[in-house]
Design brief:
The protein is built from 13 helices and two strands; from the N terminus they run ααββααααααααααα. By secondary structure, it is mainly α. Strands 1-2 form a two-stranded antiparallel sheet. The radius of gyration is 21 Å and the shape is globular.
């Protein structure tokens, strides 16, 4: 596995576009820290995000994981482009000629997906821990390391989504069309879920992208300030913010399906 990962990392780093996107991806994750510096002071109106409690433990694990998940689109572009380049530059065929099996080829891609997901999760963990220690009103050990299941949900979300992009990249050889397909599939699921006569929630939760989105529910309505505003205008919030093991299992099942289909498709494709 170490050899396969090394091969893929070299491919990514030697490609200028992939290198720039990788740096941008982790750069965006770093920008979470800048949220703390957002402060407006205009006469009687004062607005400081850090003072709203978004960096309080354990809320910060949920908030930062939810914000960071949107940066995944940059690495998704890398995965799709990576597969497109394999076809365009003939490296896929060359790897197979050099003795790499198609199973090893898929394994190398999946190992890269998992590796980047692990690094991203560690990155968010460190950023959140530092910001929390600086701004949080609660610094007891038990509170700091509670509700860290949101980081697990973040990791599973990344692995599932990147595996989906890997399958699409193999299915559609052109990166632009592959990214377009991912977007169209997202719109298709939105139609099925949010259309007036769409799928009921108990069924919709089994859709691939919808199940991933259910791992991390938006955290903003958990803030005390938002709760107070909602109560004043008569809005009752009944959202379930917990990370459910059943949802994790659904996403992991889809991940296994995506990887299997990627291998199945590659075995039957004339290269």
């Amino acid at each position: 596995m170490k050899r396969l990962l090394s091969i893929e990392l070299q491919k990514i780093w030697k490609n200028k576009a992939s290198r720039v996107l990788t740096i941008t991806y982790f750069g965006l994750l770093s920008l979470i820290a800048l949220i703390a510096s957002i402060k407006f002071d205009i006469g009687p109106f004062k607005f400081h995000l850090a003072e709203m409690g978004i960096f309080n433990f354990p809320f910060i694990w949920h908030f930062n994981s939810f914000i960071a998940i949107y940066a995944k689109v940059f690495f998704a572009i890398i995965i799709v482009s990576m597969m497109s380049n394999e076809y365009s530059y003939g490296t896929l065929k060359q790897n197979l000629i050099d003795g790499m099996s198609k199973k090893e080829f898929i394994a190398s891609k999946f190992v890269t997906v998992v590796a980047f997901s692990i690094v991203s999760t560690i990155f968010v963990f460190i950023t959140s821990l530092v910001l929390g220690l600086i701004f949080s009103s609660y610094n007891e050990f038990g509170i700091i390391f509670s509700q860290m299941e949101y980081l697990l949900a973040y990791f599973v979300n990344l692995v599932g989504f990147f595996s989906f992009c890997l399958l699409v990249g193999i299915l559609i050889k052109r990166s632009a069309f592959a990214l377009g397909f991912v977007f169209l599939w997202f719109l298709f699921e939105c139609f099925l879920v949010y259309f007036k006569y769409g799928l009921i929630p108990s069924v919709a939760r089994f859709l691939p992208l919808e199940s991933m989105s259910q791992l991390l529910i938006e955290p903003f309505t958990k803030l005390s300030a938002i709760k107070n505003i909602n109560s004043q205008i008569g809005i009752v919030n009944i959202k379930d913010y917990d990370v459910h093991f059943s949802t994790i299992l659904i996403v992991l099942a889809w991940t296994a399906i995506f990887v299997y289909l990627s291998h199945w498709l590659l075995k039957r494709r004339d290269l």
